[in-house]
Specification:
The protein has three helices and nine strands, in the order βαβββαβββαββ. With about 160 residues, the chain is of the alpha+beta class. Strands 3, 4, 6, 8 and 9 form a five-stranded antiparallel sheet that branches. It has a four-stranded mixed sheet with strand order 1-5-7-2. β8 and β9 form a beta hairpin. It is globular. The protein starts with a strand and ends in a 20-residue tail after the last strand.
């Protein structure tokens, strides 16, 4: 995978994402790994299904990379997000940020995951022991009962 910002149906390899940001000027590489958790509000999750409008999602991931580059000097960013069925503990997202100094890499990594939840059109269906539901956007503020967002929910 040569792209720095991508959506995939295949399991994510953390090292592949990290290798994209290795640079001689980097004094730190921060890696965020988002995984599927078993319990949410004491409800047991069996697995999740992620879906996305892939071209727009990759465009928004690249936008986040550009935002980070404009905020943190010499930052390098790579983000991979998985879609499809993910079991408990599977990796859903990997963010790697390298910067000359560690504080910047922490801040930029946090910025990236918050922006992903805010602007990237990726949504999920939760499967519990007692039911299932399309959750909607990643901030869980807008429901998608049909399983995907309508045009009114997509902001390019």
């Amino acid at each position: 995978m040569s792209k720095h910002f991508y959506i995939t149906k295949e399991p994510l390899d953390v090292n592949v994402v990290v290798e994209k940001v290795v640079h001689p000027h980097a004094g730190a590489i921060n890696t965020f790994i988002g995984t599927v958790r078993e319990l949410t509000n004491e409800r047991r999750t069996l697995f999740l299904e992620y879906d996305a409008y892939i071209p727009m999602a990759e465009k928004k991931l690249a936008q986040i990379g550009s935002e980070i580059n404009s905020r943190w000097n010499e930052a390098r960013v790579a983000i991979g997000h998985r879609i499809g069925r993910l079991d408990i503990s599977d990796i859903a997202v990997v963010i790697a940020v390298s910067t000359p100094h560690r504080a910047d890499s922490y801040e930029a990594s946090r910025y990236a995951i918050e922006r992903i939840k805010e602007i990237v059109p990726i949504w999920k269906k939760e499967h519990w022991e007692d039911g299932e539901k399309w959750i909607g956007d990643q901030l869980e503020k807008t429901e998608y009962p049909s399983g995907k967002p309508g045009k009114e929910n997509l902001d390019d």
